[in-house]
Amino acid sequence: MVPYNPDTFHLIDAASIAAMKNGAFLVNACRGSVVNEEAVADALASGKLAGYAADVFEMEEWARLNRPHDISVRLLMDTDRTLFTPHIGSAVDSVRLAIEMEAASNILQFLNDEIPQGAINRPLEGVTV
After folding, report:
1. What is the mean pLDDT of residues 111-125?
2. What is the pLDDT of residue 87?
3. Which of the two residues, 21 and 118, has the higher pLDDT score?
């Protein structure tokens, strides 16, 4: 489980899959572009990977300018060794309410010239770039 950023883009690629033991299963439940889906399709086709499961996909990575616009057909067609589910872990009323309340709080803080509590791009104290 890692965030998507330049250091984690295709963290799981052909080289990292080659380092896995034969017959491994790979699960991606963090961010789509952390895994190179074409490398996974190659590894499934060769038998290197025994299976792949995901609820996130490269095509969903809106922050990525060159993102694919579809899930690899090779992955979708390999129904014996792949399992895909929707990424809906937050689809619970109490969780959605908490998300909405934090968003509203962040907006109010911004409008009051405060740094929003959820800001991820604020400078860290003592860190210079």
Report:
1. 77
2. 78
3. 21
Q: Is 60 a catalytic residue?
A: yes
Q: Which of 38, 60, 64, 81 is catalytic?
A: 60
Q: Which of 31, 37, 58, 61 is catalytic?
A: 31
74 CB-near residues (< 8 Å, 6+ apart) = 38, 41, 44, 45
pLDDT at 80: 94
64 annotated active-site: no
Instruction: Note the helical H segments in 4-111.
Output: 14-18, 37-46, 73-77, 93-111
Predicted local confidence at residue 129, as pLDDT: 46
Please say if 31 is a catalytic residue: yes
Task: Tell me the average pLDDT of the chain.
Answer: 89
- In this predicted structure, the answer to whether residue 64 has a pLDDT above a threshold of 70 is yes
Query: Which tokens is 57 given?
Result: 């996909």
Identify the CA nearest to 83 among candidates 50, 46, 52: 52
Joined together, the tokens standing for residue 33 give 């572009």
Please give the single-letter amino acid code of residue 43. A
The β-bridge partners of 61 are none
Identified catalytic residue from 64, 67, 74, 87: 87
